Amino acid sequence: LLSTDTDNGVNSILESMAMGKAVICSRTKGQVDVIQEGKTGLIVPQGDSKALRDAIQYLWEHPDEAERMGKAGRKYIEENHTLDQFVCSVRTIAEQVIVEHRNS
Fold first, then answer.
1. Given Cys at both, which of 30, 33, 77, 83 links 18, Cβ 3.0 to 4.6 Å?
2. Where would I find the H helices in the chain?
């Protein structure tokens, strides 16, 4: 990922984690809370192709570790990012906007 303050790429990360895959991501301000370093994936410095290559090679050479991270990522998704949780949060925000609009 390019340097950003927002969570660009988060859908791809969450979908990969939901599929039980270890994730490798660039360290950016926008991606600090989804991937848990060493638990659900690996984080590399932004723009560091050697670090990215090393992370890919590490997971390739340690399939048990990649599988462990993938399972942890899947568990994280099941506990924190289900469709029901997403719908509930959108509904809550929409209801707050409606109440604020009525009160203004």
1. 77
2. 10-18, 49-61, 63-80, 83-103
How is residue 83 written in tokens? 């469709």
d(CA 38, CA 68): 10
First to last CA, the chain: 40
How distant, in Å, are the alpha carbons of 12, 18, 92, 93, 96 from that of 21?
11, 7, 31, 31, 36
Angle at 5 between CA 59 and CA 46, to 5 degrees: 35
Partners of 72 in beta bridges: none
pTM recorded for the entire structure: 0.76
CA distance 32 to 95: 28
Q: Which residues contact 60 (CB under 8 A, 6 or more apart)?
A: 66
Q: Which two tokens stand for residue 96?
A: 């707050």
